[in-house]
Amino acid sequence: GFGSAGSGVGHGTPYEARLWDLLTALDRAWWGSGFSPV
């Protein structure tokens, strides 16, 4: 899904990293762990 490409990596601030980690977790929970190619 949209948040799966490197959680918490390459983002400007710790807040951004946490936000992307959350989005990644929600994305994986919604679509399933095997859905995303990355």
Approximately what portion of the residues adopt beta-strand conformation?
Answer: under 5%
Taken together, the total number of domains comes to 1
Report the count of strand segments: 0
Shape: rod-shaped
Distance between the termini: 8 Å
Radius of gyration: 10 Å
Helix tally equals 1
Question: Poorly predicted ranges (pLDDT <50, ≥5 residues)?
Answer: none
- Helix fraction bin: 40-55%
Query: Which quaternary structure do these chains form?
Result: single chain
Question: Describe the biggest sheet?
Answer: none
Provide the residue-averaged pLDDT. Answer: 66
Order of helices and strands: H
Structural class by secondary-structure content: mainly alpha
Explain this structure.
This protein starts with 13 loop residues before the first helix and ends in a 7-residue tail after the last helix. The longest helix has 18 residues, at 14-31. The mean pLDDT is 66. It has one helix and no strands. With 38 residues, the protein is mainly α. It has one domain (1-38).
What topology emerges from the helices and strands here?
Blueprint: H1 14-31
List keywords for this structure.
rod-shaped; mainly alpha
Quick summary:
It is built from one helix and no strands. It is mainly α.
